[in-house]
Amino acid sequence: MKVTLLVVGKTTDKHIIALVDEYLARLKHYLPTDIEVIPELRQTKALSEAQQKEAEASLILSRIQPGDRVVLLDEHGVERRSVEFASWMQKKMLSGTKRLLCIVGGPYGFAPAVYDRADEKISLSQMTLSHQMIRLLFVEQVYRAMTILNGEPYHHE
């Protein structure tokens, strides 16, 4: 199974980029993992929130491939402890899923069409987190899940 994190907008913080790259490099040992970036919309001041979400939705939906398991990283999604997340990842790997596509929306969230296409929603926290930080937290949790599943000493419980 391949894990792809699809995000709207690039990260400019060099420290976050370095940490994300570190975890992506570590993950290569376990499973292919990458980040795809959809460029931020330009001239959004002329767009309403709904129009911006719809414009982002068309870009997001165009990246979904047949057979993808689509998971939205959404504040209203299911929260899991790290061990539970590892178990969830294992179920996805054993289910024959070719690509687990996890999506971070734009600043206003997702349009209804994206919610309709999603297979499920997960939340990394009930707190509001920056889109830049979500990338780091997500790849770290995927790495942590892989170490849990392999009985490695990264996670302590």
Give the SSE map.
Elements: E1 2-8, H1 14-27, E2 33-38, H2 49-62, E3 69-79, H3 82-94, E4 99-104, H4 112-117, E5 120-123, H5 131-149
Parallel strand pairs: 1-2, 1-4, 3-4, 3-5
What does this structure look like?
- The chain has 157 residues and is of the alpha/beta class.
- The chain has a single domain (23-41, 49-149), classed as 3-Layer(aba) Sandwich (Alpha/beta knot).
- It is 42% helix and 22% strand.
- It is built from five helices and five strands, in the order βαβαβαβαβα.
- It has helices at residues 14-27, 49-62, 82-94, 112-117, 131-149, and strands at 2-8, 33-38, 69-79, 99-104, 120-123.
- Strands 2-1-4-3-5 form a five-stranded parallel β-sheet.
- Strand 1 (2-8), helix 1 and strand 2 (33-38) form a beta-alpha-beta unit.
- The longest helix is centred in the C-terminal third of the chain and has 19 residues, at 131-149.
- The radius of gyration is 16 Å and the shape is globular.
- The two termini are 27 Å apart.
- The mean pLDDT is 94.
